[in-house]
Design a protein that fits this description.
Number of strands: 16
CATH topology of one domain: Aspartate Aminotransferase, domain 2
Structural class: alpha/beta
CATH architecture of one domain: 3-Layer(aba) Sandwich
Radius of gyration: 48 Å
Order of helices and strands: HEEEHHHEHEHEHEEEHEEEHHHEEHEEH
Bound molecules: pyridoxal-5'-phosphate
């Protein structure tokens, strides 16, 4: 029994064991099933991916095939086109060659036929031109010259007994062409203005451009670029305290404006009794009344207008030259006058270093330094008239630079437009401007053509041209030429003095020259100069070539030697 019990217990145990083994097997079967499922899933995924990749490769391959095919087609097309073009060019060249050959042959035959006719026509034109010139010249002589003589006043001449005048038909570089075809070298730069020569492309262009925009507008209540630009240039190129620009229509007017500014300044600062001007003899400042009143009282027009001109104060002419050693005695008379009349003197006015039209005299720069000191000491304004000397004529941009002093008011003109048209400027310091405009005063001047845009535009171009050019070396070489070429004339009995400074060369005779005779002799030498009084002088354009300068001084020498 016990053994049966034992064996049934064993059997039960065995059943339990088997049951648990079955469960385990079922579990692992389930796991394996799941794994198999997962494996089959990933296998099908991989299969799908593989298929997709194969499809993509297939697609890419077909795309590549298409592109390659397209490229091949394109290359073929280009090759075809190139070939066609090459053939077309070849054909065109051939045709052109043929055409040119034909044309050349045709021209040859035409030229052969035309030759005698062309010669004939040239000759006919020449004869007609010569005949016309003769008739035209005669008409000019008889009709226009007569009108000119009978109806037009020329500078400083009589209408009943005028000096001869020479009609000019054109001017280019430094040459003037008379209407009879004669050409002369201009040693006067048209009264010292034409510093760059005539018919200058840069100045022509500036004038043309400006005339297309506007030749003029009033300056009252309006303004414009050319005037502003010119103002900037003038303020920029002159000494620092000179800041306020009044644009006028001529040198004389710029002097009038300077005198007026000085008078209004003293009214403005409460010293209205300061109404006279002190200057030196031998000066020239223009032909209007205020300007005349400060010109040399003998050489100027004082006698003629006595009673009309304001009575100014005159110190002796500075007779100490730049080469002399300085002595304060040279300015003692001037010092005495300024000291005695300082309560009445509004300003001193003079041309720095060079007295131009009053005698072409050069004086020591120290004179200006001392003058500046005296003006400051006696509360008197200082006006420099640089109408003749400004823009490089004396070898400095402005002659006051020789003395390194600056005025309270500066007048410039003449070369400001390179001699193209009339324009001048009066430039004042801030002190002067503020004095003039104190107590709500306005400056009482306003010409119709003030700041004419055309003139301003040309002035801007001329200043640009000057500053961009080697003007200093040019003026320097003109000065050295004058020094060597004119100096031998000093030895002549008829010659009183020979002097040069910058682009100014002067021969002063002992006797007055007969303008018409000397001028005629010079024209025969191919040179244009205008002597005055005892002076034969040249103030050429800065661009004058050495060879032309030689011609000018040779002509001066020959004419002086004959006197
Ligand atoms: C020093 C000086 N000031 C003024 C003038 C007058 O200028 P404009 O003739 O332009 O009136 C001249 C003319 O020669 C001059 O040389």
């Amino acid at each position: 029994m016990a053994s049966v019990k034992n064996s049934s217990a064993k059997s039960r145990k065995r059943v339990v064991e088997l049951q648990s083994a079955i469960k385990k097997a079922e579990k692992s079967a389930e796991k394996a099933g799941k794994a198999a499922k997962r494996a089959s899933h990933s296998a099908s995924k991989a299969k799908k991916a593989r298929h997709e990749a194969i499809d993509a490769i297939k697609e890419m391959r077909s795309e590549n095939r298409e592109t390659r095919a397209k490229l091949e087609k394109y290359a073929k097309q280009r090759a075809k086109d190139a070939l066609r073009k090459k053939e077309a060019i070849k054909k065109a060249r051939k045709a052109l060659k043929k055409k040119l050959k034909k044309q050349a042959e045709a021209d040859k035959t035409k030229a052969k036929q035309r030759k005698p006719r062309k010669k004939q026509r040239k000759k006919a034109v020449k004869t007609r031109r010569a005949r016309n010139r003769a008739i035209f010249a005669m008409q000019l002589d008889q009709a226009l010259r007569d009108f000119d003589r009978d109806h037009l006043w020329h500078p400083y001449t009589s209408l009943t007994n005028p000096l001869p005048v020479y009609p000019v038909s054109s001017a280019d570089g430094v040459m003037l062409t008379f209407d009879d075809g004669r050409q002369v070298i201009d040693g006067m730069a048209s009264w010292w203005c034409v510093i760059h020569g005539y018919n200058h492309p840069h100045l022509n262009q500036a004038a043309k451009q400006q005339i297309d925009a506007m030749s003029h507008v009033m300056f009252g209540g309006l303004t414009h670029q050319p005037a502003i630009e010119l103002g900037q240039k003038l303020v920029g190129m002159t000494a620092e305290p000179l800041e306020h620009v009044f644009l006028t229509d001529s040198g004389s007017i710029s002097v009038e404006v300077a005198l007026k500014m000085a008078l209004q300044y003293w009214q403005g600062v409460g010293k209205p009794d300061k109404q006279r001007f002190l200057t030196v003899r031998g000066g020239y400042h223009g032909d209007t009344f205020g300007a005349m009143s400060v010109c040399d009282p003998v050489g100027g027009m004082h006698q003629l207008f006595q009673g009309m001109l304001p009575q100014q104060l005159f110190a002796p002419r500075p007779d100490i030259t730049p080469g002399d050693s300085w002595s304060d005695d040279a300015i003692s008379d001037f010092a005495e006058l300024i000291d005695r009349y300082s309560d009445e003197i509004a300003a001193v006015i003079l041309e720095p270093v060079v007295q131009g039209a009053g005698g072409m005299r050069f004086y020591h720069p120290n004179y200006l330094r001392k003058m500046r000191e005296l003006c400051d000491r006696h509360d008197v304004l200082l006006i420099f008239d640089e109408i003749a000397t400004g823009f490089g004529r004396t070898g400095k941009l402005f002659a006051y630079e020789h003395a390194e002093v600056t005025p309270d008011i500066l007048c410039v003109g003449k070369a400001i437009t390179g001699g193209y048209m009339t324009l001048a400027a009066t430039i004042a310091t801030d002190k002067v401007a503020k004095g003039v405009c104190s107590d709500d005063m306005v400056f009482m001047h306003g010409p119709t053509f003030m700041a004419n845009p055309l003139a301003c535009a040309v002035a801007n171009a001329s200043i640009e041209l000057l500053l961009e050019s080697p003007w200093q070396s040019r003026v320097q070489s003109i000065e050295s030429h004058f020094n060597t070429a004119l100096e031998p004339l000093r030895a002549l009995d008829a010659v009183a003095d020979v002097r040069s400074l910058g682009a100014i060369g002067v021969v002063e005779m002992k006797e007055s020259l007969t303008v018409s005779a000397v001028q005629e002799a010079l024209i025969d030498e191919g040179v244009w100069l205008r002597p005055f009084g005892k002076l034969l002088y040249a103030m050429p354009p800065y661009v004058m070539e050495q060879e032309q300068l030689h011609k000018v001084t040779d002509a001066m020498s020959r004419v002086v030697n004959r006197l």
